[in-house]
Amino acid sequence: MDSLGRTMKNYHAWFQNKKQNTAITVACDGISETHAQARAWLKFMGTQAFREDESNWELEALDRNI
């Protein structure tokens, strides 16, 4: 729970690189879907896969874990 009383929710973000025919799933959290997308990108940017081919990755889907 943050200082405003909002609770972080768990998500899975699915990143795809169509050029390399590769997909990677990242677990993340956020107080909203937009917040979770931003946190997923920050987490994914730290991966070796992203650093090796930064311009061809897209966030394809964000699913909330229930």
Could you give the topology of this structure?
Blueprint lengths: L8 E9 L4 E9 L2 H13 L2 H5 L4 E8 L2
Antiparallel strand pairs: 1-2, 1-3
Report the C-alpha radius of gyration, rounded: 13 Å
Spans of at least 5 consecutive residues with low confidence: none
The main sheet comes to:
3 strands, antiparallel
Approximate helicity band:
25-40%
For the record, give the distance between the C-alpha atoms at the N and C termini, rounded to a whole number. Answer: 17 Å
**Number of strand segments:** 3
Strand order of the largest sheet: 2-1-3
Give the ordered list of helices and strands: EEHHE
**Total individual domains:** 1
Coarse structural class: alpha+beta
- Percent of sequence in beta strands: 35-45%
**Shape verdict:** elongated
How would you state the average pLDDT, rounded? 94
Count of helical stretches: 2
Defining traits:
alpha+beta; about 70 residues; 2 helices
Description of the structure:
The chain is α+β, with helices and mostly antiparallel strands and 66 residues long. The protein has one domain. Helices cover 27% and strands 39% of the residues. A hairpin with a 4-residue loop joins strand 1 and strand 2 (22-30). The two termini are 17 Å apart. The model has no long low-confidence stretch (mean pLDDT 94).
